[in-house]
Design a protein that fits this description.
15 helices; 340 residues; two-stranded parallel ribbon; alpha/beta
Length: 340
């Protein structure tokens, strides 16, 4: 079921849509073809770092407080997060909220039965490779990045461009001294356990009622938009890795203004555009994203009504977005204060 898992988790999981993210209708950005992989100049911070301050959300008619810690991905692999302020808040809180996560519901027997079809959906039709389907200039830009970040992994050459893009991006992050793993959550969970504060996990079930149809829908998205996804990912790795490291550093030292000032291109908008070309997938993804946002907002509002103090986590990129969940809380009449 890798294809089904990818197309939903890719769209619904950790990835926030930042204020600067291009809309899904934008054409993929272009970049000057690179003869070799880019040189990275920004040196990542190491050691113990404070991270950003906390956002504060309150009701106008109450002194109840929702404290929100902004998370960032990727982050330097070698930093250790200094959590003294967060520990004090958790110790005096009644609840800790996770970010909302999609939980796919596919029956195990159906998953096993459909596994060959799902695996087939990952690869290009008729056994073609990326060299066969990519324009020559784009393939020439793909090769040095593949060599640098994927090495001799020739299996990736047979993957759909959208899946090859995912493999390349993940490996590039790891080999650039960063990680997409949420290094903060294990610390938060440990603190909550120490102080006996309950953790509310916001898991949103996303049923896959017709797994065979989902596979067929994913297969139907192959084509130029699929290639555009890989082209945009390549462009980002050619031009934005140094800015990613700068954003990671800004988060680590708690420099919110720096985080806001740095551009935040996101190739996922173009990749989601490929998936959204199928009407069934577009409808399902839009509905699932709406449910995930709604589930977190419902939990946050309930916490503000029921608890004197609550700690929650959200991606920084969404928190500074004009249409993110904090903006939605402002529209509902809550007071939102940024960290100083």
């Amino acid at each position: 079921m890798h294809a089904i898992v990818f197309l939903l988790i890719y769209a619904l999981s950790s990835a926030p849509v930042a204020a600067q993210t291009p809309p899904a209708t934008d054409a993929p950005p272009t970049a000057t073809p690179a003869a070799s992989a880019p040189t990275l100049d920004t040196v990542l911070v190491t050691g113990e770092q404070p991270g950003p301050g906390l956002w504060k959300v309150t009701r106008r008619d109450s002194d109840h407080v929702l404290w929100i810690l902004g998370t960032q991905a990727p982050l330097p692999k070698t930093i250790s997060w200094r959590s003294n302020e967060v520990e004090k808040i958790i110790a005096s809180s009644q609840e800790v909220l996770t970010d909302a996560q999609a939980e796919l519901k596919v029956g195990i027997f159906r998953a096993v039965f459909l596994l060959p079809a799902a695996l087939g959906a990952k690869k290009n039709a008729e056994g073609r490779t990326l060299k066969d389907i990519l324009p020559a200039d784009l393939y020439a830009r793909w090769l040095p990045l593949k060599q640098r970040y994927l090495g001799r992994d020739d299996g990736v050459e047979r993957l759909r461009p959208i899946l090859a893009a995912n493999e390349l991006y993940g490996k590039a992050i790891g080999k650039s001294g960063m990680t997409n793993k949420n290094a903060l959550w294990p610390v938060i969970e440990k603190i909550a356990k120490r102080h006996k504060v309950p953790v509310k996990e916001i898991d949103v079930p996303i049923p896959v009622d017709n797994a065979r149809q989902a596979i067929d829908d994913f297969k139907s998205t192959a084509g130029q938009l699929d290639i555009d996804c890989l082209a945009t990912t390549i462009a980002r790795l050619e031009t934005d890795l140094d800015s990613m490291r700068a954003r990671a550093n800004a988060w680590a030292v708690g420099d919110l203004e720096k985080l806001k000032s740095l551009p935040y291109p996101d190739q996922r908008a173009v990749c989601l555009n490929a998936l959204a070309a199928n009407a069934n997938l577009r409808e399902k993804l839009d509905a699932a994203k709406k449910r995930i946002r709604g589930a977190w907002l419902d939990a946050a509002e309930a916490a503000l009504w029921n608890n004197a103090s609550t700690l929650a986590v959200l991606p920084v990129a969404e928190m500074v977005s004009p249409d993110g969940r904090l903006a939605m809380m402002r529209e509902k009449g809550y007071l939102v204060e940024e960290p100083q």
